[in-house]
Design the sequence.
């Protein structure tokens, strides 16, 4: 069903009807800080309301705009996240965080080329391991496996284990798709050593073993993946928001 151009998200409409957006003398910064606290506790819907309160007080409060984009991406609302990220980029055109949020929204809409174009606008001095991880992911989605491996290999091994583990997992998948099974196995073993609770890594390991003709090892890895799937959330890596990026 086509949405009306005047469609307002249900949660936000309830806020308007109950006057929950009244500032009561609080500043945009205070609302944003409360939203960050809620986000870091994984209360995403409540965090979104606080960020919207901040924008009710100050529609140009850049941190809140960027945080809205981040939360909407996590809530699986990429069209809204894209609008929020583009609004933030009007104020700060080359901000790495907002370009990353734009890229994630575009990727969720299966527009990987546009997502990569957004990331390419980030200046070299601001390219982080998170950006390289996204670039590697989107390149692999476009079957550009060699380029994906090149990007992922630039990630510093001093980064948190979960980031390096994800990078090695994507490298393993890319190597496997290229038919290079030995480096694929090496990368997936590193990934599992660094991030042992990731069921996806064991599924990839099972696939590599199968292609190597070792069905017993493949079944063992698949069983481990199934076991972990019952214990571990399949959600995205959680990276806490910073309350005071631009203050």
Sequence:
């Amino acid at each position: 069903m086509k949405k009306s151009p005047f469609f307002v998200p249900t949660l936000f409409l309830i806020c308007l009807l109950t006057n929950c957006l009244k500032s009561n003398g609080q500043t945009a910064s205070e609302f944003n800080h409360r939203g960050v606290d809620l986000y870091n506790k994984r209360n995403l819907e409540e965090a979104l309301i606080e960020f919207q309160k901040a924008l009710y007080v100050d529609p140009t409060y850049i941190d809140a705009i960027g945080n809205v984009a981040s939360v909407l991406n996590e809530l699986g609302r990429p069209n809204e996240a894209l609008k929020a990220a583009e609004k933030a980029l009007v104020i700060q055109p080359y901000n790495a965080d907002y370009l990353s949020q734009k890229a994630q929204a575009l990727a969720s809409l299966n527009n990987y080329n546009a997502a990569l174009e957004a990331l390419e606008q980030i200046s070299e001095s601001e390219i982080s391991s998170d950006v390289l991880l996204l670039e590697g992911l989107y390149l692999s989605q476009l079957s550009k496996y060699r380029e994906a491996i090149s990007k992922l290999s630039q990630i510093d091994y001093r980064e948190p284990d979960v980031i390096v583990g994800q990078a090695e997992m994507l490298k393993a998948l890319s190597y496997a798709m290229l038919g290079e099974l030995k480096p694929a196995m090496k990368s997936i073993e590193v990934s599992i050593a660094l991030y042992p609770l990731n069921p996806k890594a064991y599924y990839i390991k099972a696939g590599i073993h199968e292609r190597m003709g070792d069905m017993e090892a493949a079944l063992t890895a698949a069983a481990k993946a199934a076991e972990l799937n019952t214990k571990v959330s399949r959600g995205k890596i959680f990276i806490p928001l910073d309350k005071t990026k631009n203050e």
